[in-house]
Write a structure and sequence with these properties.
Blueprint lengths: L4 H4 L17 H4 L1 H12 L8 H15 L2 H14 L1 H9 L18 H11 L15 H20 L9 H14 L2 H7 L1 H17 L4 H17 L16 H8 L10 H4 L4
Helix pairs in contact: 3-4, 3-11, 4-11, 5-6, 5-10, 9-10, 9-11, 9-12
């Protein structure tokens, strides 16, 4: 047999009195996270488990696994040194528009295009039911849910499974550009796990879609690296503008659109 001792050197057994699996990672320690990762990184797609259900399960798990007090402390520290970030929280803007409120916008505007998506695909405005945020982190999450579909639209990500990688990687890059690394990491736990399930499934089960998948990742990361803080953008202010004008006003840059619907259809 091949001798891999060089590559395996340095491994140390750590003694413990624990009767259960324990590590220095809160994510590895939690059996729900381990099960989610094993299941959704490795499974094929199927109608018995619709893909949107993957992400809401992950959200619910992370609420209990992450240290929310620590995240709120990091947010408070960022607010003290970032006046624009602090002002965003002070304003606390929350969307209240409904589908019918978008009906009067011209077809080529942000409002008109989003209205068409909602009607044609029978989508709901609120990915997560509205709630009254009780902390900075809860407000951050609320706005992330309210703006997600606009990040698809303005970032050039199709409203399909592979297209999800565009807004995922917009945020994964953008948060680290504009916020402290520790805070960006805590705010990105959902995105890195949620996006990775798409990447691993493409390679393991749908390799014919891999180059389209990789391109979506790269397009999202490029937009995130070069754009203003995406997480603070108020898309509701540009409903009346065409996409290019809205992107310019908001500071969304380096958008390159591509078809992901054709490849996503092969995942069903």
């Amino acid at each position: 047999m091949a001798d891999y001792s060089y590559l395996m050197s340095g491994i140390t057994s750590v003694a413990t009195d624990s009767s259960a699996l324990v590590s220095s990672s809160r994510y590895l320690n939690d059996p729900r996270v381990r099960d989610w990762v094993a299941t959704h990184m490795l499974r094929r797609n199927g109608p018995d488990v619709p893909t949107p259900s993957d992400s809401i399960q992950l959200v619910q798990i992370l609420r209990e696994v992450q240290d929310l007090d620590h995240i709120n402390a990091l947010l408070a520290a960022e607010r003290r040194q970032n006046p624009a970030f602090d002002q965003w929280f002070r304003e606390g803007f929350v969307s209240t528009f409904q589908v019918d409120d978008l009906a009067h916008y011209a077809p080529d505007t942000v409002g008109g295009l989003f209205h068409a998506q909602l009607v044609d695909k029978n989508m709901q405005i609120d990915i997560v039911p509205p709630f009254e945020p009780q902390s900075d982190f809860e407000y951050f999450q609320l706005r992330a849910g309210q703006t997600h579909d606009f990040e698809h639209l303005l970032g050039g990500g199709g409203f399909d499974f592979i297209g999800e990688l565009v807004p995922y990687y917009m945020r994964l890059a953008n948060l680290f550009v504009h916020l402290s690394p520790e805070l960006a990491g805590e705010l990105s736990a959902f995105s890195i796990l949620g996006s990775s399930r798409i990447i691993t499934r493409a390679v393991l089960h749908y390799p014919q879609t891999w180059l389209v998948t990789l391109d979506a990742l790269e397009r999202g990361a490029t937009v995130g690296r070069h754009s203003e803080p995406i997480y603070m953008m108020r898309y509701e202010d540009v409903f009346d503008l065409p996409l290019d004008a809205a992107r310019e006003k908001l500071g969304i840059r380096r958008v390159r659109e591509a078809d992901t619907a054709t490849a996503s259809a092969q995942w069903r």
